[in-house]
Structures are given as C-alpha cells and as structure tokens.
Amino acid sequence: MDIFRKRRSIRKYKPGVIDSSLIMKLVDCASLAPSAANLQPVRYIAVNSPDRVKEVMKYVKWAGYVRPRRNPVPGREPAAFIAVFHDTTVSNSPFAAYDVGAAVQTLLLAAVDNGLGGCWLGAIEKDELKALLDAPATWQLHCMVALGYPDEEPVVEPVQNGNIRYYLDDSDVLHVPKRSVNDILRWANE
C-alpha cells in the first residue's frame, strides 16, 4: 500500500539524470501490465538527454488547477519523458486506450518503487511531439510521462463538499483531495 499512497503527480524535481537502464526497467515493468486480448499494442519513446527534455517541455502543459505556479522552472524540470503510444497496426480497438492506462499506471508505480516521481501528462501537443520524436505514422500518441527525482511531497486529503480541485497552500505544498472508499464503493451481495 505504501507505493500506492506515495504515488502522486510530481511537478517539482531535483536536478539529476535518469540512467537509460532505469528507464528500460520502468518500461519493462509497464510491459507486464494487462492488455486486451494480450495484443500488447503499447509503444514508447524515451527522452533523457537534457537538450531533448527542454524541447519536449515546449509541448506539454502542467497542472491546470494551479498553473502557472506548478510549471517546472529551469533547473527543476523533469530529467526524462516517456511518450506513450499505441501501434495501430497491432490494434485499432478502443481497448488500446485501456492498455495505455494500465501500462502508464504500472510505469508510475515502478518509478516510485525506484525513487522517482512522475507526472502523467495528457495536455500535450500531439502532432508537434510526434514530429519531434520521429514517431512512426502508425503510432497514435496518447500521453507523456514526465520523470525525475521528486522535490515535493503532495499531501492527500479527503474530498470536502464535493471539491476535487487540487491546490497549493501558502507554503507551496500541493494538496490533492481524494474520494474515500466509502464514497466510491457499493456492495451488491444481496
């Protein structure tokens, strides 16, 4: 449970490089995620050179509720990005999006287990990123995952009055409301 509770969207990072072998380990973990009909259409392009990371930064948007205060600043940006695609020659089923979701969550949990923080980014400029990363035409870009050494510890708190918006307090700590198990679980035993 500790890894699940510790996994938060991290948007402030310490300087550092993520070795290619660690990125390969994370993607290897993601490859073990469930896949509809075991088709395994999820594909990845990784970027961990500082110059390329800066180029990718131009095409991703961060933390809509607290923008621009949680946009990474120079020296505090992620150390790597992983672009997550599905290969339409393997599957063009709508279930490929579920495969992507399972793979990304697995990757993020593996990142936490290896001392990293990550942020799942969907507000991205897909055409520009596909061109920048020289992705095959048959690969559909779903999202980006930012990775780095975390320099923040977001606080999880209960949802109050239905408000799910995350926010920064006066000390620049990110608070993330989460619904309780009693709010999201119903029993159907009878």
Total number of helical segments? 6
Sheet with the most strands?
A: 5 strands, antiparallel
N/C terminus separation: 30 Å
Mean pLDDT: 95
- Protein structure class: alpha+beta
Number of strands: 8
- Shape type: globular
Round the Cα radius of gyration to an integer and report it: 17 Å
Fraction of residues in helix: 25-40%
State the order of secondary-structure elements, H for helix, E for strand: HEHEHEHEHEEEEH
Q: Give the DSSP E fraction (strand runs of 2 or more residues).
A: 15-25%
Low-confidence stretches: none
Would you write up a description of this structure?
With 190 residues, the protein is an alpha+beta fold. It has six helices and eight strands; from the N terminus they run H-E-H-E-H-E-H-E-H-E-E-E-E-H. The strands form two sheets. Strands 1, 2, 3, 4 and 5 form a five-stranded antiparallel sheet that branches. Strands 6-8-7 form a three-stranded mixed sheet, with no helix packed on it. It is globular and about 45 Å long.
Task: Kindly summarize this structure in a few lines.
With 190 residues, the protein is an alpha+beta fold.
